[in-house]
Design goal:
Elements (H helix, E strand, L loop, with lengths): L1 H20 L3 H35 L8 H20 L5 H20 L3 H32 L2 H37 L4 H10 L1
Helix pairs in contact: 1-2, 1-6, 3-4, 4-5
């Protein structure tokens, strides 16, 4: 896919600039790897995201066929996956986890409304949700600190400057024939001279 080719070119340029200016290459390569994971997840969501959600609904959600106890077990498995995604910083993981906790609360009420298990599940949901909120706050603060890394900022700045220089060079090359023609005319060049130049340029 063209998206991966573009990403690979950008990643290689980042590493080249980092090495040239003595920046932290490991940090740059980590950023490149994170960008690749995000692009992969984005493309998968675009291609099969709706199908995956259908499968989830049929195996643990509102379309589940089975007892409330079995559905609760399936939901607990999905919750563990969502918690892992949240720990990894995956976009949308918090919303998914909140939805699963809501489903678990409803299913647990249907299955255990007259027992202590429902109260235990509610307590677990609240505890885990609060823990997830605290962990997400820590991740956001850490990401904010990483984003202010001077080496990464300098690398991105150097990359932007390099792109600007490339654009200027392309414009210069495109305008070069007209500039040469103008210089020849000003120096008294003949039409024969210009024709010869056109054949050899």
């Amino acid at each position: 896919r063209n998206q991966f080719k573009d990403l690979d070119r950008q990643a290689a340029e980042r590493v080249r600039i980092a090495r040239q200016y003595g920046f932290d290459v490991i940090a740059i390569e980590k950023r490149n790897a994170e960008d690749r994971v995000k692009l992969t997840e984005q493309l998968l969501e675009e291609q099969v995201g709706s199908l995956q959600r259908l499968v989830t609904e049929m195996t643990s959600g509102s379309l589940y066929e089975g007892s409330a106890v079995d559905q609760r077990t399936a939901l607990l498995g999905e919750i563990e996956k969502a918690k892992a995604d949240l720990d990894a910083g995956k976009d949308g993981a918090a919303d998914t986890l909140a939805n699963l906790y809501s489903q678990l609360n409803s299913v647990s009420k249907d299955a255990f409304a007259t027992t202590g298990q429902y109260a235990a599940d509610r307590s677990m949901i609240l505890d885990q949700a609060r823990a997830a909120i605290a962990k997400s706050n820590e991740q956001i603060l850490a990401a904010s600190t990483a984003a202010s890394d001077p080496a990464l900022t300098q690398t991105n700045q150097a990359l932007d400057e390099n792109n600007d220089q490339n654009a200027e060079l392309i414009a210069l090359v495109q305008n070069l024939p007209a500039a040469i023609r103008q210089a020849l005319l000003q120096s008294g060049g003949t039409s024969l001279d210009l024709a010869s130049l056109a054949r050899t340029s």
